Amino acid sequence: MDLEFTPLTVLAGMLVYFVFMVFIPACFGISMGGRLLYIKALSKCFEWGQAGVHMDFGDATTPLEPRPGRLSRSSSRNDTGQAAIVRNRSFNTFRREFHMGDACDFANSAIEAIIDDEVTKGFSAEHIASWNLLWRNKGYNFLSWRLTVVYCLGLIVRYFILLPMRVICICASIGWLLLAMAVFSMLPQFKYRRAVENWSTVVAHRLFCRGLTAMIRFHDKKNAAKPGGVCVANHTSPIDTVVLSSEGAYSLVGQKHGGFLGGLQNALSMAQNHVWFERSLVNDRAAVGKRLRDHLADKTNNPILIFPEGTCINNTKVYMFKKGSFELNAPIYPVAMKYDPRFADAFWNSSKEGIETYLFRLLTSWALVADVWYLDPTEIQENESSVDFSLRVKRDICQKGGLVEVGYDGMIKREMKKDMIEEAKGNIAKTYRRKILGDEH
């Protein structure tokens, strides 16, 4: 009997595949090996693409010849290698002999200052050295016909093959979470309810990770957070929560959102103890600390998961940790997370794109590849302040994840005050006046 491929049979086949190849492995935390082979194949493809760029156009790092009439970069450097501007000996001489070409020195110094700015670098996508066949690296996909063909084939695979399968998996994850939380919210307390609840949420997050074709490598899982403790990690996007929760259940702490994120928060809170704060209450440190201490005092609650930076950074740096997380008199379980930017840009810049746009960008990327390191638990030491404690934990996370430690508050990208801008303008004006007048003091 010939098999007819009707929409019903195709749907049935997809359902069988999902149950036996996705859902059941997610329930038991096992992998069938398909994602690993997929990641290895992508790596080979990226290497081929980069080799093609070098073959057709040579080394992309070859310095360009200076344009005629333009100042050479080396001419604007002093003996110490720092940028230097040719100075006139008096302001009157400067006014008399000024030419439009002199502005190039100032523009060069300004551009160098912007490029070397360690603060704002953390708020843009991480740079990757080679093309990953995504539109994010604009300009590469039209270098040659071979690369253009490969890019177009990748476009078809990502949008017409992977995207529908991922959407189905994500919807199944959210549906499972909603169903499980609704059922548990109506059930009475029983002996193994907490364990079953945790298992249900872990399965939901594993399904979500499979919807992103996530390949997560967990290291030193023996150091994972335990009830009564606080797990702190560097923050790249809301996906950090999904990644960590796919290996163990946590009580989440964060600001209450609206829209899609708010709906997920409400679903999670239907049957579990999470700590959400209203926007007006976030600034009340005493009230927030009391709620967290009450939560930690109940050993039946899951360990708390906090991102002390308070905002998303592009996974190359770690900004200042808020000290409130380290004033709870509880064990701290540090976690370092590092995403591979070749397969997807995991950074979420909430000031430029909504969560829906961010998720669509992830769903149309190649995969989500990350390493997660569980560091040894630690507690505040004698005569150690909460600020010093937070700095010590942050330093350990940076060293383990290969991240750059930055001493600035990450919220600076949203709370840039007028007086800060005026102060920066004043410093720039003083710097250029010293260069013009030749005054080094």
What does this protein look like?
About 45% of the residues lie in helices and about 10% in strands. It has twelve helices and nine strands. The chain has a seven-stranded mixed beta sheet with strand order 1-8-7-2-5-3-4, sandwiched between helices. Strands 6-9 form a two-stranded parallel ribbon. It is globular, with a radius of gyration of 26 Å. It has about 450 residues and is of the alpha/beta class. The longest helix has about 40 residues.
Q: What does the radius of gyration come to? A: 26 Å
Number of strands: 9
Helix content percent band: 40-55%
Main beta sheet: 7 strands, mixed
Shape: globular
Task: Count the DSSP helices.
Answer: 12
Strand order of the largest sheet: 1-8-7-2-5-3-4
Sheet/helix structural class = alpha/beta
**Strand percent estimate:** 5-15%
* Uncertain residue ranges: 60-91
Main traits of this protein?
alpha/beta
Can you summarize this structure?
The protein has 12 helices and 9 strands.
Fold blueprint:
Layout lengths: L6 H22 L5 H24 L33 H6 L6 H13 L29 H42 L6 H19 L2 E6 L10 E4 L5 H7 L5 E5 L3 H10 L6 E3 L7 H13 L6 E3 L10 E2 L13 E8 L15 H9 L4 E7 L11 H16 L2 E2 L12 H20 L4
Parallel strand pairs: 1-8, 2-5, 2-7, 3-4, 3-5, 6-9
Antiparallel strand pairs: 7-8
Helix pairs in contact: 1-6, 5-6
